[in-house]
Design goal:
The complex is a heterotrimer. Chain A is α+β, with helices and mostly antiparallel strands. Chain A has helices at 42-50, 92-102, 107-121, 136-148, 166-183, 194-200, 218-223, 228-233; strands at 2-13, 16-27, 31-35, 57-62, 65-66, 77-80, 154-158, 186-191, 203-208, 211-216, 240-249, 252-258, 264-268, 281-286, 291-293, 304-316, 321-327, 330-336, 347-353, 358-360. A six-stranded mixed sheet of chain A has the order 6-7-8-3-9-10, sandwiched between helices. In chain A, strands 13-12-11-14-20 form a five-stranded antiparallel sheet. A five-stranded antiparallel sheet of chain A has the order 15-19-16-17-18, with no helix packed on it. In chain A, a hairpin with a 2-residue loop joins β4 and β5 (65-66). In chain A, α2 (92-102) packs parallel to α4 (136-148) and α3 (107-121) crosses α4 (136-148). Chain C is 73% helix and 0% strand. Chain C is an all-alpha fold. Classes of the chains: A alpha+beta, B mainly alpha, C mainly alpha.
Amino acid sequence: MSALTIRNLRKSFGFVEVLKGINLEARAGEFIALVGPSGCGKSTLLAMIAGLETVTAGEIYIGDRLVNSVAPKDRDIAMVFQSYALYPTMTVRQNMLFGMESRGVPKSQQVEAIARVSALLQIGALLDRKPGQLSGGQRQRVAMGRALVRDPKLFLFDEPLSNLDAKLRVDMRTEIKKLHHRVGKTTVYVTHDQVEAMTLASRIAVMHQGEVQQFDEPQTIYDRPANIFVAGFMGSPAMNFIPAEMTTVDGVDAVSFVGAGGKLVILKLQQPSGMFEKGRKVILGIRPEHLSRHNAEMRGKEGLATLVAPVEVVEPTGAETMAVLRLGELEVVGRFTPDEAPVMGEEMVVSVDMTKACLFDPTTQRLL
Amino acid sequence: MADLALTDTHDRDAVSASRRQLITRIAIYGILSLFALVYIVPLTVVVMNSFRDQPEIARNGLIAFPQSFGIDAWWSAWDSYCIGGNCEGMKRYFFNSLWMTVPATIISTMLGALNGYVLSKWRFKGSEILFTCMLLGVFMPGQISLMPWAFILGKLGLSNSVVGLVLVHCVQGLSFTTLFCRNYYISVPDDLIKAARIDGAGFWRIFRKIILPLSPPILIVTVIWQFTGIWNEYLFGVVFTSGTQQPITAALVALTAGGTTASAYDVMSAAVLIGALPPLLVYFVGGKYFVRGLTQGAIK
Amino acid sequence: MAVAQSIASGTAGQSWRERFGSLVPILVLAPSLLASFIYVFVFAAWTFYISLSNSALLPSYGFVGLDNYFSLWANRRWSVAYTNLFLFSGFYVLGSMAVGLILAVLIDQRVRAESFWRTIFLYPLAVSFIVTGTVWSWLYNPASGIQFLVRNLGWSNFSFALASDRQYAIYAIIITGIWQSSGFAMALFLAGLRSVDGDIVKAAQIDGASPFRIYRKVILPVIAPIFLAVAVVQIQFAIKTFDLVAALTRGGPGISTTFPAIYVYDLMFQRGQIGEGAAAAIMMLVALAVVLVPYSLFVVWRRRREGRNG
């Protein structure tokens, strides 16, 4: 049974349609990430699930109950906000109690819930402090604690980590993952950070311009992005897009484009031949990590193609080194291990792992 | 010493700069003191005169160093001086003003807080337009409302009564208090309200448990603004009340106008101070909030 | 297991209670809204209607068209009143802004005991125009105030009788007005100066600009909107000026310091010419609108532009 089902959901503010028919469904215990650039509608979608925004058209089911016009408090949900939204005049304990008091939960259960959650999140020592006296990470924990005391059917997270500094964000990400593992509640998690989505979610919905571009498991989204937007959004540095033309080499399908020095580059594809007519325009998508320095062992290996390109910029990050290569009009980013990293100005011979390459249609932008 | 000598030989620029700076500092404090004197003198003169004897004032003028001291003038101003044929001093008018100002301040502030809460956190279609309409009240000159109020107060049987003035000031103050509170509550994150709604709190519970505990700064600003404004108001007081029902501002004008013969400056000084004391007290106690109100009232 | 179970039964659609609940905000707002609506629109329309009627001692509703306006504008006292208003507005606004700016800039020089200075310059705002006007009328009084003091000091020919001189009484009001409210301008300017980004001042210092130049070219342009805001508020004060004049000169000597607000009061409550008084009140409203409507439109326009650029 699905814990959350969204059918053909639409939302308009005046004449502006911000959600254009969303379909999603989360299985019980699943961790769904809604990811997309700002303004893509992901936060509006979350607010509609929470009941904080009205539904223009379509249906939202929590469990098997239609909640379109159910008040937020009666939806059996809990939410963690980007700003944490801790009540500033109340202590941590009062913050966590507030919801239970509003609902008239018996005192003994209140006490028990506080004890359970503060042990779970290790915030026992903070219970009598006010939010203003807490660090960012502590506030984050308390915000989660407030959601957890209620033991709801559905957890909603609205960019909960975006106000933390980089290191803390990684720590809290791990915490959330552990917590979800332990509590096992169905969770909808909004973020604009694709790494967060990749690491946390069991399935990701990539949103753009009010539509779900792709809804699938993280690795599928990364390996087989449904369109150019998803391919470009997921992954950093972003996938390289090279406009190219279909051709055949030795009876095998290949792509050709103008590379360094105006020379035609031809790369053999790994897909079965004969799928595309010759001369068709395509966009070739190659992730930076699928470029590597060509060496003798690679010669003749299946699925590898080589090209030569001058190196324009080299950016070491320690664990790996990014390099910008010039391919005619285009710049292509490659991700190399430090020991095979190029130097600036080098004419590098690069191997391209064509088994991982994606082809997109230039007009529909879709994966071919 | 050695250091000084060094700078002297090596860095004439620095020395002349520091001398110039000293002159600048003196000039700054000099000009400030001059202005301060102009601001302080009128108050000082009135305070001194309220303790001087009338004959001495008549002899040496108003602006003179006191050569006598007595508190009779205060007593007389408070309790027995005659204003418009009524010889009870200022006390009646003082209490009129108090019974007018305190309820009007409390009621208009409470309504303003509620209105501000609705207009910032429970916005509905058209609420912005309604808010703009309410704002127009801030700009209305009192003269426009004189005849309509006179008529309405008459119909309600509140002519020439302190209660009538309370009503007038409440309505007139609504736009200010609403504006103040609404602009303050706008800065309260909407997420708090959303979180509370998910937590199961409704309109009143959110107001009581979340908004009100956050409100003391703006409530103090509003109360101070309303209190000083209403206490100091004259037009409505003089138009809608007469005789023993007048607030203290109107009584002060009557008092000084009535002083035809050798003016009793000692008593009048004390009377003026009685009229000025409550707002001054509020100002000296809550100065920070008073200034905040001014700046907020101006930049809408 | 479940700590706080939701009470909801799972019915679709809203119960009557929820529907009522969503009305609560509007119900809370309604009385204030109604009162404000009456205060702003009904009262203005009402007074406008009276201004078109033949009301004299009591309101009556015989329609006389614009007669009251014609007789108002034909009245010499009214022309004195609005001439005074222009004179007063000009000097009062410029004067208190100038004084306020000087004080604000001086206080902004990291002076010691800043709050002490501010307290002194701002206290007149806390007391009423009635108190201020009364006290200053004593100071202007030749027989006991400033003139008396200076003559006693030896300059026996010294003459300072502003308030009792027909030609100059208006300046007595202007000076007192400036005294009362330059602190207001100071507070706003100071808040503005404090809000200027410190980095641009540092940048200007490194560029070698003198302090005077920094103020003139860098800081004051940044706070230009505050000048406009202060000016508009002060003009608004000026148009509504009533208490100060009532306490200081009572419109005299003669009619020399009549102001529109004084005139309205006199016509309505002293002379029993309610119709014409209402006409004068409407003229005040028009004057306010002439100042405030363009200003509000400008502010809205500027905010939109900033919104677009932001």
